Amino acid sequence: MKLGIQINEGPYTHEASITALNYCKAALEAGHEIFRVFFYHDGVNNGTRYTTPPQDDRNIVNSWSALAKEHNIDLVVCVAAAQRRGIVDEGEQQRNGKDGNNIAEGFRISGLGQLIEAGIQSERLIVFGD
Amino acid sequence: MSETKKFMYVNRKAPYGTIYAWESLEVVLIGAAFEQDVSLAFIDDGVYQIVKGQNTTELGIKNFSPTYSALGDYDINKIYVEKESLEARGLTVDDLLHLTWEDENEDWAEKDSIKVVSSSELKTLLDDSDVLLNF
Where are the domains of chain A? Predict the structure, then answer.
């Protein structure tokens, strides 16, 4: 089955992201396809490579990057939500005159249309968050 | 993407205090361009999102409730409000924004967009949806 995933919470305050990560792994193992993972609301905070948890904690951002690399998964961070919360790629850095960027490997910033498209193209859209 | 699906946006949270309601409305407005079959449901504290007479001056956040009145212009005219959620909060449909749309098949007659439904009617509507977006 072709699945779309939406994540609405940040990586550390809330369990939504790690649950979604485990869900994606299980779905892939069972032979399903992940059409796209879309990060919205504080979920965009899953996409900063500056995340540095203590050594005895999980690095959820790196886990997403690794999963994306291994399975060629499209990780999309909502641009409007990202701008509010300081998640920046090279294009956004130039467009908004910022002094750096922080997007993590395997993530890209794009519009809300990508979420709607995931709803249209996937057989199920699964939403993780409150 | 010629396929048309039934999108149902379920709004469950108060308009202020968290950003979910505002960012949900942003999805609805962007999604309107995709020519899908769109419905909105307001349940629990989400019914406060469309209460009329909102004033956010002292909160220091934009009062985005006037934007709901524009939904009719985006061909979004199926707005369901759960009866039980209104009653539990001492609200009636008269406390809500008067949301309307113009029916081009009836010489642009102005019609109400809001329909108050029971929780069991809403369950059927949710069951019939293809894509459920919960905010």
Answer: 2-128
pTM above 0.90, yes or no: yes
- In angstroms, the CA B78 to CA B90 distance is 23
Tens digits of per-residue pLDDT, A102-114?
999 999 999 999 9
Residue of A92, A86, A121 whose CA lies nearest to A109: A92
Pick the residue from chain A with its C-alpha nearest to B29.
A112
Count the helices and strands in chain A (H runs, E runs). Answer: 5, 5
Task: State yes or no: is A78 an active-site residue.
Answer: yes
Structural domains of chain B, ranges and CATH numbers in brackets: 6-134 (3.40.1260.10)
**Among the options A3, A24, A68, A78, which is catalytic?**
A78
Q: Report the CATH fold assignment for A2-128.
A: Hypothetical Protein Ychn; Chain: A, (3.40.1260)
Q: Does A126 touch chain B (CB under 8 A)?
A: no
Q: pLDDT per residue over A12-41, tens digit each?
A: 999 999 999 999 999 999 999 999 999 999
